[in-house]
Amino acid sequence: MRLFTVKRHIKDSFRSLKRNGWMSVASVSAVTVTLLLLGIFLALVLNVNKLSSEIENDVHVRVLIDRGTTKSQKQHLKTELKELKDVATVQYSSKTNELKKVVGHYGSSFQMFSGDDNPLNDVFIVSTTEPEKTITVTQQARKLKYVTIASYGGTQAKQLFKVMHTIRQWATGFTILLLFVAVFLISNTIRITILSRRDEIGIMRLVGATNAYIRWPFFLEGAWTGLLGSILPIIALDFGYSWLYRITAVQLTSFGYSLAEPRYFLFVLNLLMIIVGVLIGAVGALISMRRFLKV
């Protein structure tokens, strides 16, 4: 295809978007809503999978110590933990060290919480003789004095898998429904364009224009619709996920976990939404062309 022809097809596709006005806006809006929900769903599922994997591989019990506990009381608690059955080792991690982990995961902005403003707890990290013993040790540790909470991977894993299953069921069904709506609206937009240019298309066919030549502007129109519909979801998810990543930093790191790092994660998610958006638009255009470009 010559460069002049490519430029003409691109120009015609933009002209058609402008000509259809509110129908184009409706199509772009449908793609926007679809991709926004799809992006939220993917971000949730991917992070739940990441957290579940971390939890499953975590064979330690994290024992958060009550704030205000004295040094001698901590030593007494450590002794009690060592005396528990099936405990292999007990390591102490101060709240200052826990904050360093937060800063390492989420950036230097969390250094403002140093000193008396540190909201984290001192922690005893208990290793068990066997991974399956973490449940028993956790239950025993929770009963000890000066313990705020004792947690291990199993409890959170069960809860996360249950939540993930529910998210997958509802979000998948709803997203598929929205994908059909988006394709339907885009195909109707292209259909109106074809009908309004039916005489022009007929003349083009009479003078020898191929099916491919006639189809390209409509195909590009659908692709532009999908691309435009991906812009707002990308912006919303980038800001929303970065904000969520920051506010969950302290809570998740307290339990030894973290969300997916935004830089690479959002790049992949944004690229995926652009591809899906363009595909939705292209499929909508193809559906219309199959029905109306039969001469």
UniProtKB/TrEMBL annotation:
Belongs to the ABC-4 integral membrane protein family. FtsX subfamily. It is found in: Cell membrane. It is a multi-pass membrane protein. PANTHER family: CELL DIVISION PROTEIN FTSX. InterPro entries: ABC3_permease_C (IPR003838), FtsX (IPR004513), FtsX_ECD (IPR040690), FtsX_firmicutes-type (IPR058204). Gene3D superfamilies: 3.30.70.3040. The chain crosses the membrane at residues 21-46, 170-190, 223-244, 264-287. Residues 59-147 form the FtsX extracellular domain. This is Cell division protein FtsX. Part of the ABC transporter FtsEX involved in asymmetric cellular division facilitating the initiation of sporulation. It comes from Agrilactobacillus yilanensis.
